[in-house]
Amino acid sequence: MVRIGGSTYSKRLFPPQVEFLRDVGFDYFEIDLTWLEPGQALESEALTLAEILPIETAHLPPSRFTRGDQQRFQQFLDYTAMAGPKIYNVHLTPSRLTPNIPLAVRTEWLGELTDAAHARDLTLTLENLGESLPVLAEVFTRIPRLKFCLDAGHASLDNETDRPYELLSLLGDRLALVHAHDNRQGHGEPGDLHLPFGQGTIRLESILRAIRKSGFDGHATLELFTGTREEKMASLAKARAWLA
After folding, report:
1. pLDDT tens-digit readout, 71-123
2. DSSP 112-169
3. Residue among 99, 159, 156 nearest 128 (CA)
4. Which residues pair with 91 in a beta bridge?
5. Closest by Cα among 192, 195, 148 to 170
6. 22, 28, 7, 201: which is closest to 89 by C-alpha?
7. How far is it, in rounded angstroms, from Cα 170 to Cα 164?
8. How is residue 2 annotated by DSSP?
9. What pTM does this model have?
10. From CA 29, how far away is CA 57, in angstroms rounded?
11. Separation CA 99–CA 31 (nearest Å)
């Protein structure tokens, strides 16, 4: 049975966000680590939040793919895993501070982090953004332990309709996490709106049913950055029906 969680945003106070997700009926929450630093304070907060609602997935910050970031990201694992998350999600796209990192450097860096997660009995997932299918195929071939996060919203930008299914066909056997949100299929970041289901133009029902039909029974995080309580409750109900 697919477990359905809700996303958080680390520039806002966590407790109200997590309490909201609990009250709406989500199974877990995904802790956003983008604007945080690893350490004892994070560990304490994560343990406290886990008493409100289980933390089962975590979203790592954009990386500069440096040695310092490798150490920092492994510290994120060490200071949060005891609170519950087993899946840590990362992007292949570099931080805006270091935009021109060669693919080979990023792949080697991700391989090291994947092995570090595996040594801690954790899973690292790589989320699709705007990468081509050949690039993703190369990265996943080079890193056998790396798992895949299919982001249905990102896959549908630039008026794409086939790409979510192409990604599922290419990497479905590596799928360990799903991110779902609606958007209006515009270009790049400006079009990546993270809307409640039904407020955009993505064929979410078809995509999520295809994911479930593929045999997926893991975690699906709804990344709904806007919307009312009622709209988020309706999105959750739809996700439960389509992933049943």
Report:
1. 999 999 999 999 999 999 999 999 988 889 999 999 999 999 999 999 999 99
2. HHHHHHHHTT-EEEEE-SS--HHHHHHHHHH-TT-EEEEEHHHHT-TT-SSHHHHHHH
3. 156
4. 127
5. 148
6. 7
7. 10
8. -
9. 0.97
10. 7
11. 25
Using CA atoms in the order 91, 96, 101, 104, what is the torsion angle rounded to 10 degrees?
0
Q: Using alpha carbons, select from 85, 89, 132, 82 the residue that is nearest to residue 110.
A: 89
* Torsion angle defined by CA atoms of residues 37, 40, 44 and 49, in that order, rounded to the nearest 10 degrees: 20
By the 10 Å C-beta count (0-12 exposed, 13-18 middle, 19+ buried), 192 is classed as buried
Whether the Cβ atoms of residue 124 and residue 114 lie closer than 8 Å to each other: yes
Nearest CA among 62, 65, 76 for reference residue 109: 65
Q: Residue 160: is it exposed, middle or buried by C-beta count within 10 angstroms (0-12/13-18/19+)?
A: middle
Contact in structure between 189 and 200 (CB atoms under 8 Å): no
Task: Please name each of the domains of the chain with its CATH number.
Answer: 3-242 (3.20.20.150)
From residue 34, give the alpha-carbon distance in Å to each of 11, 49, 61, 90, 155.
8, 17, 4, 10, 21
Amino acid at position 100, single letter: N
Mean pLDDT of the chain: 97
